[in-house]
Amino acid sequence: MSEISTSSKDKILLAAIEEFGEHGYKHASTNNIVQRAGLSKGLIFHYFQNKEKLHFACMEYAIDVFNKFIKNENPCANADYFDRLLSFSISKLKFTHEHLLISRMFSDAYLLFGTGKMPHFANFFDNVTKQQWNMLVEGVDTSHFKQNIPIDMMLDYVHSALDTLAQKYIRKYITTNEVASIDQVELIKEVQVLVNFIKYGVYVEEL
Asked: Which of 30, 36, 118, 154 maximizes the CB count within 10 A of its CB?
């Protein structure tokens, strides 16, 4: 592929992320996308065939940007699972503020998928979940857990609880373009309270 065509494809992706981020998938316009990119509409269909496949390509691009950001932040350096979880949550919040349109596009797709309107994203979100799960649990120190605690079940419960909290903020702020109204300090405190509530219920008490 030539440099010119690669550049055109990237322009379309970046313009599409802006459009999907600002208007959501349902209301995004391919006409607006080509206007943003300064390219002909035919190039969208040349590279991506249709709006749905363009959206999917944007989501793949978005998760790549997220993974590079998380790798640079390195929130999983600590071997303690709950310290790692808190750091990871803070890094995700930081990403949301620094990459708002990507975050809004991703959140919009996730909420639509949750209503059964985007079944083609099943494998995509499953892979994203598994990737983040592996990142959080790889090399984690399990020596502090009580012996009678089924660790896999507990970890699954923690992630589900945090996902519920995340969905609350997604619906309240990100999808309504009010992310600037999020009190980051208060949100981090809420995450910390939840993490500590579970942590001190499953860790062995220190003498």
From this structure: 118
Q: Is 189 exposed, middle or buried (0-12, 13-18, 19+ CB in 10 A)?
A: exposed
Q: Full-prediction pTM beyond 0.90? A: no
What is the SS3 assignment for 138?
coil
Q: Give Cβ neighbours of residue 122 (< 8 Å, ≥ 6 apart).
A: 113
- Phi, psi for 55 (deg, rounded to 5): -60, -45
183 CA to centre of own chain? 19
139: left (phi over 0), alpha (psi -120 to 50) or beta: left
Q: Select the highest-mean-pLDDT range: 61-65, 88-92, 143-147, 193-197.
A: 61-65
